Amino acid sequence: MSDCCPNPPAGCCDMRGLLSFSILWLLLKKDMYGQELADELGRMRGTKPTPGTLYPALGELESSGQVEWIRKGRKKVYRLTEEGRRGALEACRYFCSAYGDIFREFTEAPKDEIEAQT
User: Fold this and answer.
1) DSSP 82
2) At the N or C end, where does the chain have fewer CB atoms within 10 A?
3) For residue 61, with 0-12 CB atoms within 10 Å meaning exposed, 13-18 middle and 19 or more buried, which class applies?
4) What is the bridge-based pairing of β-strands 67-72 and 75-80?
5) pLDDT of the residue at 72
6) Can you give the CATH number for the domain in which 80 is found?
7) CA angle 5, 17, 47 (to 5 degrees)
8) What's this model's pTM, rounded to 2 decimal places?
9) What distance in Å separates the CA atoms of residue 104 and residue 96, rounded to the nearest whole number?
10) What domain range is 44 assigned to?
């Protein structure tokens, strides 16, 4: 763990797999139903999560009070609770603090220099 971020935000999300963080990030932008979340996650990550992966993550976020859903027609639309919004923003700050240097160094370094090190 980085010295600049010794204490990750308690209960904000599971930073290990980044799925819950990604869900929170997407729901910060707008409310979404499950298939819409799966499509956006697929666009972000290159592979779409299966329902067996996505819905348990949504269930955990719901159990922790960060996500709730409302019914719109036949669809469940997921949205952040106020606690979820605060947690998502805190998680974003933590993520940027913990990993920002990696992204900056990677995007600023010449590609051939990075590839030569692998």
Assistant:
1) H
2) C
3) buried
4) antiparallel
5) 95
6) 1.10.10.10
7) 135
8) 0.75
9) 10
10) 19-116
